[in-house]
Amino acid sequence: MSTKAYEGTYNGEQAIWLQAGRYEAVVLPDVGANLIAFRDIEKEYRFLREPALEEMEAFKERPIIHGIPVLFPPNRYEDGKFPWKGNVFQFPVNEPKTGNHLHGFVHNIPWVVEHFSSDGHESHVALALQVRKGHSVHEFLPFDFTIRLVYTLNEQGLHQQISVHNEGNVAMPCLLAFHTTINAPFAVNSQPSDYTFQMTIGERWALNDRMLPTGEYQALSADEEKMKTGGLSPFFESMDNHYTSVPQNSRNFMALTDAREGIKLVYDVGTSYKQWMIWNNGKTEGFFCPEPQMNLVNAPNVDLPADQIGLVSLEPGEVWEETARLYAIKTT
Predict the structure, then answer these.
(1) Which residue from 291, 284, 285 is spatially nearest to 269, judged by alpha carbons?
(2) Which CATH number is 8's domain given?
(3) DSSP string, 106-175
(4) Closest-CA residue to 43 (of 262, 234, 255)
(5) What is a biological process (GO) this protein takes part in (predicted)?
(6) C-alpha distances in angstroms, 89 versus 85, 108, 134, 164?
């Protein structure tokens, strides 16, 4: 199998390109280490939403709804307040309509490329974000830590490995998600109506008018129940919904099926992601975001057990790590 890893550009932006057989992927180190493209070049499938050349400036201003942005800490925090072990960290309120902080600090800043390489079987790239005093993230999360992200491409698809290492001398919060943006359709000759999906959701969290959890669950609709088994359009209704994750057959996943092509895109994520967010841009056909998330939205401000809401604490020297994979299989 032909494999390759090399430095190049993507619409004028510095990029690391990975190739392995029919698959191709692109990472943008200076834009939050966003895995901006994952493609099957033989079938001309583009699985992730990519910005066009004329969209690049807008994308870099708000790199959330393309590719696979890293959110740390993810989603919304009430009034920008993040209580932690006797302290309250103040985040900027960057969502005026809700008065919340949204999406953390690492998705729009440069990461360091540690290395990239290929062999006869696969290609890969490793990126890192080291936070110390003086770093822009340290201003809001005053801890010493490193996030490492490794992408590997081989005949089994795109593999993602992420870790957070607490390199300081006090316990730190570890809350992380990916705002993964999936094309539907991903095939050139298919239509949105050709697509159905399945997700390993459990309960739906009730959200208030500020899009923050009330701590209660709300009943699933009949259509939402279908999300657990498949056969439902990702645009069946407008979604900006928050769910618990309940693995099926020990797997936590989203699966998107193109009935016309007879292909299923599988997004396997680790069971450390105890929650899902799903957003479909007001049921606008073309793309949607199944977002694996460690923690409940606004978790530090919610009076529920830490294990239930994914409020993870890393002691000095500890490492949190998880993996995920995107791959396509035939259904017919």
Answers:
(1) 291
(2) 2.70.98.10
(3) STTS--EEEEEEE-SS-EEEEEEEEE-TTSTTTTTS---EEEEEEEEEETTEEEEEEEEEE-SSS-EEE-
(4) 262
(5) carbohydrate metabolic process
(6) 10, 20, 16, 20
- Cα separation values, 132 from 74, 114, 229, 254, Å: 20, 17, 45, 35
- Which tokens belong to 257? 């099926």
DSSP three-state, residue 102: strand
pTM: 0.97
- Residue-wise DSSP of 32-85: TTEEEEEEETTTTEE-B----GGGHHHHHHSTTSSSB-EEBS-SEEETTEEEET
Measured over all CA atoms, what is the biggest interatomic distance in the chain, rounded to whole angstroms?
56
**Structure tokens, 189:** 């000759």
What is the extent of the structural domain holding 55?
3-330
Q: Which two tokens stand for residue 215?
A: 């701590």
Counting the structural domains of the chain, the total is 1
pLDDT digits (tens, 9 = 90+) for 77-89: 999 999 999 999 9
Contact 32, 107 (CB under 8 A): yes
pLDDT in tens, 116-152: 999 999 999 999 999 999 999 999 999 999 999 999 9
Band the pLDDT of 308: cuts 50, 70, 90.
Answer: very high
